[in-house]
Write a structure and sequence with these properties.
heterotrimer, A alpha+beta (about 525), B mainly alpha (about 300), C mainly alpha (about 350), A: about 525 residues, alpha+beta, 11-stranded mixed sheet, about 25% strand, B: mainly alpha, flat
């Protein structure tokens, strides 16, 4: 009996002890951010394609060309100081900025730059298409991409591409400059360091990777010798918190400096808090529906057009999407060069019904919408379900995790998919290639990376215009072509483009300098300071 | 007048005059004993209310709980909406009421699948013994060894989300204990005298199993089933919470909590009300199960 | 009459006894192995049947067919399913649980990282269940029919009937957000991360061993709420079982005899009745512990607790089959192990079931 009593007392004391210390303000030289980082599966820039990792490697690696936080609209040289385009537009020579150093202390040489690009092509992981589309492959890349001397790198493309596009591609994650000496010293069985680099970093950017514990935490350490000067804080911590309401609680208590995934309603909830500021950043992610053109009913243009007229975009944008999504109806996001900002569609049930009647479906029909399980997709799906019912279309909703949804989509097994898309690199061709360019519509062609193919839609005019715009050297003409292409896809084709994301970031007021631009990897930590 | 002529008299007669009367008497006497237990009566009341509400849903609700009113989102509980409105402007009271049908559907369907299978496996294994017993018990053990929720999750993930698949998954993870109970009962019964008598009389094994052994296992199984119903409801809610159960806009209570949980801080009623509903219904089944167990098998600890 | 259940007085030599025990042990080992293999087989099949694509989990949804095929062949997915299974089993025999897609680490390492967290949670929860649940159950049994009994039963039942994820959410809101009594989601405040060497993986022990009392404090503060939520279940179940075991004992003759003999009531309850209940109780506690191991899935989700439940759940949604299999095997083995032990204990005590 006595032993029991003693144990009880000890436990109670411990409990009381534990209850006392629950407050922990964040240290002044560390930036702690709560974000859902479950999508990180690799840290190798030759392999990275996920949203969170894209952002992280943008802060670890410098790229050949870059957008800088001080001026997000202008493409400038990163590792490259200057460049020259040959007369035929097919060769670009980069001059490498002198005096740059990797985190390891090794100097940044032209050899590292060339090797980084060659490595991407040879490993041939998912994002490699961004540069292999220029005609590079494992056999020819060593001769087409090479260091001509200690400070110059020359790249030659074999396909027809506007040099502007090539330069834009050199600002993508695959153009990250990787420390060849360091990585090759850890090479195993000719893997070009792939196994080693998966969970480590070898860059020359503002931060280096200290730890990555999957689904828990990512820690970055500042590079005091960065070419733009030492970052404003010594350490950046991305803490995995999958519940938005937990993120909110942590932020309100001051346990974190920034919450990245708050929903519109939660943003409203913290608006009144005098310690918290909300920043709105337009992003390049668009939310769209895609109707499988192989479906007997959805394949008809009038039917898709009718759906465009049945959806009540404004009602959603003004209610549960308020502040985080705006109506946008073209495939290239607003705020980027050559974006079409017309939004011709509003809910018009009468018009929709007459279109359905013309298509021979005045009595409506039944279809399934597949979408993701995370907010706001189920909500949007339910609102669309309600809207389409007004035209007599009965909708069944199925929500799935991404990894279960994509296989269906890639195999053309859907009726309508409600999903999102963000550009792989900052050039209109990035999205045009996905939405408007389907050179081979056969099932066997398996162009699974192309959205148009996934929806079994191919249009000669659209294909031709995409290629023309891609190769166009005159910037004004190129812009016009993209505007025309977007307009074409607004009226024909299987896509019902609905919204563009406006990222809302909630931060403690004492944290300044966080820059988040219009693409998923245009996020910069190096100017962050805390008072 | 003679006591036998009233219903109560008939039920309490010392010597029953027919099998039917004997059966009814047994039920009535159990009922009297059950009635004395106030906690069990509360349980019965809750479960009966659930059934009643589900049946009367079209008459007590103003809408089908599926109509969106985006301008009317997240209203606090008040005179117009007793439980408030949810994130898409739907009346929560109505959704709870319609959701009760789904709860009953799940519980009913799982029971119909699980009891026959559990009884079959358990009784056959217990009575026949030998290698049949070993094989069947191995099978049961494998499913028992599986962490229940994880197996259910894996099955639903494999079959695709949806209410029916969730029911199937729950049934697969729930049947094993019933097989064990039935087997335990069958083991204790198989060597008793009346079984031996039946065998001597030439009744086939199947006949013995169906007409003699199974009925004796029923009461334990039913008690266990009622006790497990809360667990079934909670597992279904858990699956709904993970997005694996009923699909939107179906007003399944677990899914309602899941989709509403981001509103907990400022609009607490959205996830809280369905949570309370689940709590009350589980409680009801647990109380009922307890009461039944006290009546039928007061000494059993499990 | 066939009396195979009785074992009358027999004289067997020591050699015979030994071989009989050996056969029993071999039987148990064979039994466990079969169950184990069955477990892996079922999980494996489910994994391959799942519509979530493990290749896409690695290459992402934008991958061209070429990249997709490369990884498809690399994972050996082109081989028939039984060959894949055999390959997996042979790797398992060598202790290789494969590599996780999500974490890019060997699954075995991941499990070593995540399992202690769940162990910590389940252990504290069970302890809570024991130290609060057992006295409650005894009280209810002793006061049967009167209001303490009713209260204990209702409290236990409520704990047993509440959806655990909902309870967790509400508790976080009240005790963390509003009252500020405990720390928030996660195991440790971010600033303490990486300071303590993970010797056992159980933060409380590691921090205590390193003398880092501030970290110990912080870890405890994070642990209390999820452990209490899980503990509510343990408590409800244990108090129920204790009550019914005690009722069983208290109605027996020897208790009456003891009372008639004049032994003080509290001795009758604790030294006589409770002693006899102890073994059964241990069985129940074992079962509770085992079920908490897997029941933590939902708690871990709500509290962002990086344990094995969360690991298996995330892996499942990513169709990271090596991770799911590895995690399920580990939890399944613990489950089977504990259940087996409880079963053995129970058989020794209850002659009816033999």
């Amino acid at each position: 009996m006595n032993k029991l009593k003693k144990l009880l007392i000890t436990c109670t004391t411990l409990l009381a002890f534990g209850m006392g210390s629950s407050q922990a303000a964040t240290p002044s030289n560390t930036f702690i951010m709560a974000k859902d980082i479950a999508d990180i599966i690799t840290m190798d820039p030759a392999e990275v394609f996920e949203l969170t990792t894209g952002e992280i490697i943008a802060n670890i690696y410098d790229r050949i060309m870059m957008f800088e936080p001080e001026d997000l609209q202008n493409l400038v040289g990163g590792v490259a100081e200057s460049w020259e385009v040959s007369n035929n537009g097919k060769t670009i020579t980069f001059k490498i900025r002198p005096g740059q150093k990797f985190h390891s202390g090794n100097p940044v040489r032209a050899e590292d730059v060339a090797w980084s690009l060659q490595r991407v092509v040879k490993l041939n992981k998912t994002p490699a298409f961004i540069i292999t589309q220029f005609g590079w492959n494992a056999d020819n890349v060593d001769s087409l991409v090479k260091a001509t001397d200690d400070s110059h790198v020359q790249i030659t493309i074999t396909e027809e591409f506007s040099p502007g596009l090539v330069l834009n591609a050199m600002s993508a994650g695959v153009a990250s400059v990787v420390d060849k000496k360091l990585v090759m010293s850890h090479e195993k069985d000719g893997d070009l360091g792939y196994d080693w680099l998966k969970s480590r970093s070898a860059g020359s950017g503002a931060f280096s990777l200290k730890t990555w514990k999957a689904n828990e935490i990512v820690t970055l350490e500042a590079n005091p010798n960065y070419r733009h000067g030492a970052p404003g804080i010594k350490r950046v911590i991305l803490r995995h918190v999958s519940e938005p309401s937990s993120q909110r609680l942590l932020l309100e208590k001051g346990d974190i400096d920034m919450a990245r995934n708050l929903t519109p309603d939660q943003i409203k909830g913290v608006e009144g808090n005098s310690d918290i500021a909300i920043d709105g950043n337009p992003k390049g992610t668009i939310v769209y529906m895609a109707a499988n053109a192989g479906h007997p009913i959805l394949g008809k243009t009038e039917v898709v057009q009718a759906i465009r007229y049945l959806v009540d975009y404004e009602a959603m944008a003004n209610s549960f999407l308020a502040g985080q999504f705006v109506v946008h109806q073209a495939f290239w996001p607003a705020g980027l060069w050559a974006s079409l900002e017309d939004t011709p569609y509003k809910q018009d049930v009468a018009k929709a019904k007459s279109l359905l009647k013309a298509a021979g479906h005045a009595d409506g029909f039944e279809i399934t919408i597949h979408t993701l399980t995370n907010s706001p997709f189920p909500e949007i799906a339910q609102a669309v379900q309600f809207d389409l019912a007004k035209g007599g279309i009965k909708v069944n909703i199925v929500t799935l995790e991404g990894k279960t949804l994509w296989p269906k989509y890639r195999a053309r097994e859907h009726d309508i998919i409600l999903a999102r898309w963000s550009p792989d690199y900052v050039d209109p061709h990035s999205n045009a290639d996905a939405f408007a360019h389907n050179p081979d519509n056969r099932l066997e062609a398996k162009l699974t990376g192309v959205l148009a193919w996934r929806n079994a839609w191919a249009d000669d005019a659209s294909n031709a215009l995409t290629v023309k715009a891609r190769n166009e050297l005159d910037l004004d003409k190129r812009k016009q072509q993209y505007l025309e292409l977007q307009g074409m896809l607004q009226r024909t084709g299987p896509f019902i483009i609905m919204f563009q994301q406006n990222e809302q970031v909630a931060r403690r007021k004492n944290l300044q300098g966080f820059v988040s631009g219009s693409n998923f990897d245009l996020v910069f930590y190096r100017n962050v300071t805390k008072q | 007048m003679s006591a036998e002529l009233t219903l109560r008299g008939w039920l309490l007669a010392e010597i029953p005059k027919s099998k039917l009367q004997a059966r009814c008497q047994r039920v009535f006497i159990s009922w009297l004993s059950f009635r004395r237990n106030p906690i069990a009566m509360v349980g019965l009341l809750i479960v009966a209310s659930l059934v009643g509400i589900a049946a009367m849903a079209p008459w007590i609700t103003a809408s089908d709980g599926l109509e969106l009113h985006l301008a009317n989102r997240l209203h606090a509980p008040g005179s117009e909406h007793w439980f408030g409105t949810d994130e898409l402007g739907r009346d929560i009271f109505d959704r709870i009421i319609w959701g009760s049908r789904i709860t009953l559907y799940i519980v009913g369907l799982v029971s119909i699948i699980v009891v026959p299978i559990g009884l079959l496996v358990g009784v056959v294994a217990g009575y026949l013994g030998g290698w049949v017993d070993t094989v069947l018990m191995r099978l049961t053990d494998i499913f028992l060894a599986f962490p229940r929720l994880i197996l259910a999750m894996a099955l639903v993930a494999a079959l695709g989300p949806g209410l029916e698949n969730a029911v199937l998954a729950i049934a697969v993870t729930t049947w094993s204990p019933f097989a064990r109970i039935a087997r335990a009962e069958a083991l204790t019964i198989r060597n008793s005298e009346f079984i031996l008598a039946a065998r001597v009389q030439g009744v086939s094994t199947t006949g013995i199993l169906i007409r003699h052994v199974t009925p004796l296992c029923m009461s334990s199984v039913i008690v266990r089933l009622t006790l497990d119903m809360a667990g079934i409801i909670l597992t279904a809610a858990g699956l709904g919470f993970l997005g694996l159960g009923a699909q939107p806009p179906t007003p399944e209570w677990g899914a309602m909590i899941s989709l509403g949980r981001q509103y907990l801080i400022d609009q607490w009623w959205v996830p809280t009300v369905p949570g309370i509903a689940i709590l009350v219904v589980s409680l009801g089944f647990n109380l009922l199960g307890d009461g039944l167990r006290d009546v039928f098998d007061p000494k059993s600890g499990t | 009459m066939d009396d195979s259940t009785a074992s009358g007085p027999q004289s067997i030599g020591p050699g015979q006894a030994l071989s009989r025990n050996l056969v029993k042990v071999l039987g148990i080992v064979a039994s466990i192995s079969l169950t184990f293999i069955g477990l892996t087989a079922v999980t494996f099949v489910i994994g391959r049947v799942m519509p979530a694509d493990p290749v896409l989990a690695i290459v992402g949804d934008r991958a061209s067919n070429e990249v997709y095929q490369q990884v498809f062949l690399q994972l050996g997915l082109d081989k028939p399913i039984y060959i894949q299974y055999l390959r997996y089993l042979s790797q398992l025999a060598e202790g290789d649980l494969g590599t996780s897609i999500m974490t890019a680490q060997p699954v075995a390492e991941d499990i070593l990282r995540f399992f202690p967290a769940t162990l910590e949670l389940a252990t504290i929860a069970t302890l809570l269940g024991i130290f609060v649940g057992v006295p409650m159950g005894v009280l209810a049994a002793v006061q049967q029919g009167r209001w303490p009994d009713h209260i204990v039963r209702v409290v236990g039942l409520v704990g047993y009937s509440a959806p655990i994820f909902w309870l967790g959410m509400v508790a976080l809101l009240i005790f963390y957000a509003k009252l500020d009594w405990v720390a928030g989601p996660g195991r440790l405040d971010v600033i303490y991360d990486g300071i303590v060497e993970p010797a056992t993986g159980i933060l409380l022990i590691d921090a205590a061993m390193a003398g880092e009392w501030e970290i110990f404090d912080n870890a405890l503060s994070h642990l209390i709420l999820p452990a209490s939520i899980l503990g509510t279940f343990a408590l409800a179940y244990i108090s129920r079982m204790t009550r019914s075991f005690m009722l069983d004992q208290l109605s027996q003759e020897y208790i009456l005899t003891a009372r008639v003999k004049g032994i003080p009531e509290w001795k009758v309850i604790w030294n006589h009745a409770f002693r006899n209940v102890l073994v059964q109780l241990i069985t129940i506690i074992g079962l509770t512990y085992a079920s908490l191991l897997e029941g933590s899935v939902l708690t871990e989700t709500v509290f962002s607790w990086p344990g094995i439940g969360l690991y298996i759940t995330s892996s499942l949604f990513n169709n990271d089959m090596n991770a799911v299999l590895g995690g399920t095997i580990v939890v399944g083995v613990c489950f089977v192990g504990i259940n087996l032990l409880s079963d053995l204990l129970y058989r020794m005590v209850d002659p009816r079931v033999r």
